[in-house]
Amino acid sequence: MVSNMNIVETEGVKKYYPIRGTIFSRQKRFIKALDGISLNIEKGEIYSLVGETGSGKTTLGKILVGLIPPTEGAVKIDGIDIYSLRKKEIKQLRKKVQMIFQDPYESLDPKYKVKDIIEEPLKFNHIEYSKDRIIELLDFVSLKPPEDFINKYPFQLSGGQRQRVAIARALAISPEFIIADEPVSMLDASIRANFLNILKDMNRNYNLSILMITHDISIASYMGKRISVLYRGKIVEQGSNYEIIKNPLHPYTIALIESIPLIGKRDKEVHIKDEISSNIPVDKGCNFYPRCPFAMDICKEKEPELEVISQNHLVSCFLYKQ
Amino acid sequence: MIEIKNLIVKYKAEKGFVHAIDNINLKIDDGVIFGLVGESGSGKTTLGLTFLRILPKNAIIKSGEIIFSGINILNLPENEMIKYRGKKISMIFQGAMNSLNPVINIEKQVAEPLIYHDNLSLDEALKIAREKLKMVGLPENVGKSYPHQLSGGMKQRVVIAMAIITNPEVLIADEPTTALDVVTQDRIMKLIKSLQKEYNLTTILISHDLPIVSEVADKIAIMYGGKIIEVGEYYQILKNAKHPYTIGLLSSIPEPGSTKEIKGIPGEPISLVNPPPGCRLYNRCQFASDKCKTYDYSPKMVEEKHEVYCTLYGE
Amino acid sequence: MRNLNEFWAKYKKNKIGIVGLFIIIFFVLLSILAPILPIPSPTATTSQIDSPPSLIHPFGTNDLGEDMLSLCIWSIEISLITGIFAAIIIILIGLIIGMISGYYGGIIDEIFMRITDFFLVIPSLVLIIVITALFGANLFNVILIIGLLSWPTTARIVRSMTLSLKERQFIEAAKISNVPNFYIIFKHLFPNVFPVIIATGILNISGAIFTQASLVFLGVGNITDLSFGLLLHNAFEGGDIIGGFWWTSLFPGLFLTLIIIGFVFIGRSLEQILNPKRSE
Q1: What is the domain extent for residue B199?
Q2: Residue at B173 is within a domain
Q3: Rounded to an integer, what distance in angstroms lies between the CA atom of residue B59 and that of residue B47?
Q4: Is there a contact between B149 and A222 if contact means CB atoms under 8 Å apart?
């Protein structure tokens, strides 16, 4: 088999949740959490996925790690379609992919000691290990001295410390790919940097591929070589870090970048219309139409597709349709 | 003007007392947006609650004064304090947008305080409520809607409308934009700024997010370990920060498009249960020296209107 | 709770819990020490029938001349045994059905929940009468029946907790670590569910004690064993209450009530301490 240069490939991944109608209505309506996601993550790359709450970013993370199956579409890890595998093979594949969750207070079992938390993936993936490995991992995530932390329970640790235990757990089985779902949004600002730098080190020194899921485009830019911007289940713009930040094209991306609070820049102007109400599914036309300051008639009628603008830049918007 | 003098607030915990606010002094001018920035455990939320005297049962206001229009409100009897709380001084709590009553429509909820406290008739109260909803930038039909029909940003505006319905002199906003997406955060901050401009509303903006606060605040105070560690005009703090913690905070902010490595501050904050004497950043500070261990938190003026609490700037 | 010391420190502060604990310890000791206490044998009939409380018979005597105090002390045993063993059955069945139902969901959940509903609507009194008629009215059967009819509520509570626990991130993390389902149930769900179920279990003890006493009072169940239900039954049937012999029903009733209250107090205070809503 030809060695794949991508660790992750998704093609047209959709996740629809049916909305149960009344007994009398026959029409099936869906919440389209993800509506056709196609992206590739190269081996050894940090890839950032930017989206706000409700964009579907967490759902995508769970699909990639095998927790929930997509309604449609293929997900390939290292060239293998994970949802076409049998249980045994899925288990093998799990060894390659791990996840770090957002909430440091929820992702560790309160009844487990730190040592047990880190041992668990080693045990259940039948990987031989010694106590030194645990010490090594704790040391790597700067929980020093490691011996002090081995027998602690989560409630004895701060948010930042718990999140480091979460990284240590994710790294224990030496995966090839880690999905980090908003790993720092619940941490204090002064601790975030350290955490993000640990991930960057892992990427640099061990060629670890990382999908960085975040709502913060500054963090997305700090971490990722390439960025995808997700809005209501669709990728609206995709490209290199440089292109997305310096040359944003989609009105949503432009609004995101304009909104970044920059030290020293007051009275910034953000070009976006207010949300009318909470998530009404838009039945036809572009998802962003209700909020788009540049909306045209066609945007109400048809859905735009992701199109190539340049080598490192794709956008899904009629403003740029050739 | 509001003046906080030598305020000490402690919480009784199982193993002793948590020194949440440990002898702080602040002056807040009228009509100013005053940013109070601190991370978890810094004491900033406690300060907000102390203003309105709505601290939890295990909290003790050990000593100190909060002087508001010449009166120390910490000494007021409860029946006098009621005239201030929610009337002259109003507060928006963290996550308040999720505590809206799901079964009462928006304009009625906003009008409620006027009906019950000020004995206005339903019609009079609704009229004022609709005015306030307009003031916070909400379209007319929102009044008859219910909370679940509104987005997070809109709910937060409703909360702000409820807070300003009594035409307070001071608004305390504790993390008003957490859990909102960046675009909405910008909107809410602009709303707060416009309220200040049009109504001379003194605003105390409490947040862990320095960049957001820096957008609208006129003055910024940084809190750490229950203490104020730096105070100044916003541009002084942002361009000329002096305290190692403030500098560390500023260096933790990633700048999009830049390849500069962000630094952050190593280590963890110390426990505030029986904290050791001296500077509380000692265990994390790259400039720490012996004299920090006996530092008494006396302020040093580094430029006009800019104070820092650190041994680096003279004895 | 982290460890026993911290738990005890918290429990000590709960006045109701301490009262409950004292009550139960008191009755347990009474029951254990019964053989060596300076009281007459409970079945020793005397000629002093139906006599009111006095120095010799602090709780009076019944229509056979038996000492009421002694009868009461010796009846404690049945209540305790019934309560504890019935509660064990309830907890075991409730845990297993609740966790499996909640965790796997789907058709297993549907089937288990329908079974639970079925057991909920069974008229327990009727069933007990039938079962004891068919299989004999001994203590073992009664405990078994009470246990088998009372588990549904516990199962429902366990299922609720499981439903919310299984969505939590540490469970997802375990799945990603390739932990098999039954391990997740026993090593992650169970330890988090168990503390709350202990509180419910203690409350179940009091329920079981009350149920057994009621059954015997009505003349059903293990009417040959000495129990508070039997004493009350005899008092009522023998016309003691009409006849003004209040001591043959007051004291058994009092003991029974105290034991039930004791367990309720302990159960309630455990609920308060282990309440998952309380933040750490």
Answers
A1: 31-57+74-88+166-277
A2: yes
A3: 12
A4: no
In DSSP terms, A226 is beta-bridged to: A47, A240
In a domain, B208, yes or no: yes
- SS in 3 state form for chain C? CCCHHHHHHHHHHCHHHHHHHHHHHHHHHHHHHHHHCCCCCCCCCCCCCCCCCCCCCCCCECCCCCEHHHHHHHHHHHHHHHHHHHHHHHHHHHHHHHHHHHHHCHHHHHHHHHHHHHHHHCCHHHHHHHHHHHHCCCHHHHHHHHHHHHHHHHHHHHHHHHHHHCCCHHHHHHHHCCCCHHHHHHHHHHHHHHHHHHHHHHHHHHHHHHHHHHHHHCCCCCCCCCCHHHHHHHHHHCCCCCCCCCHHHHHHHHHHHHHHHHHHHHHHHHHHHHCCCCCC
**What kind and span of H or E run contains A75?**
strand A72-77
Q: Chain C within 8 Å of A160 (Cβ-Cβ)?
A: no
> What count of other Cβ atoms lies within 10 Å of the Cβ of residue C179?
19
Q: Answer for the pair A299, A286: CB distance below 8 angstroms, yes or no.
A: yes
Query: How big is chain C, counted in residues?
Result: 280
- Smallest Cβ–Cβ distance between B252 and the set A190, A260, A264 belongs to A190
Q: Is B272 an 8 Å CB contact of chain A?
A: no
**Strand partners for A153:** none
Residues contacting residue A319 through CB under 8 Å, at least 6 positions apart: A249, A251, A294, A296
DSSP label of B217: -
Q: In the predicted model, is pLDDT for residue A245 greater than 70?
A: yes
Query: Is B306 part of any domain?
Result: no
User: Is A64 domain-assigned?
Assistant: yes
Q: Which CATH class is domain C13-29+72-274?
A: mainly alpha
Q: Which domain holds residue A185?
A: 6-96+175-320
CA distance B247 to chain A (A): 10
Predicted pLDDT at B203: 95
Give every strand in the sheet of A313-315, ordered side by side.
A97-100, A177-181, A209-214, A46-50, A226-231, A234-240, A313-315, A307-310
Give tens-digit pLDDT for B72-123.
999 899 888 888 888 889 999 888 888 899 999 999 999 988 887 778 888 9
Phi-psi region of B207 (alpha: psi -120 to 50; beta: other; left: phi over 0): beta
Tell me which residues of chain C have a pLDDT lower than 50.
1, 278-280
Condensed to tens digits (0 to 9), the pLDDT of residues C185-239 reads 999 999 889 888 988 999 999 999 998 998 889 888 788 888 999 999 988 988 8
Alpha helices in chain B (DSSP H): 44-52, 78-84, 106-117, 122-135, 152-164, 182-199, 210-216, 234-239, 244-250
Task: HSE, CB side, 13 Å, CA atoms: give it for residue C118.
Answer: 7
Q: Which structure tokens are listed for C21?
A: 């604990």
A271 Cα to chain B: minimum distance (Å): 9
What would the pLDDT profile of A49-108 be if each residue is shown by its tens digit?
999 888 999 999 999 988 899 999 999 998 888 888 887 888 888 889 999 999 988 899
CATH code assigned at A231: 3.40.50.300
Number of domains chain A is built from: 1
Q: Give me the number of domains chain B comprises.
A: 1
Widest Cα–Cα separation across chain B: 66
Q: Cβ B215–A261 below 8 Å, yes or no?
A: yes
- A146 belongs to a structural domain: no
Q: Would you say residue A310 lies in a domain?
A: yes
- Residue A56 domain flag: yes
Tell whether the model's pLDDT for residue B128 goes beyond 50.
Answer: yes
CB-based contact (8 Å) between A270 and chain B? yes
Q: Is residue C123 within 8 angstroms of chain A, CB to CB?
A: no
Is residue B80 assigned to a domain? yes
Structural domain spans, chain C: 13-29+72-274
CATH number for the domain that contains residue B245? 3.40.50.300
Burial class of residue C8 (count of CB atoms within 10 Å of its CB; 0-12, 13-18, 19+):
exposed
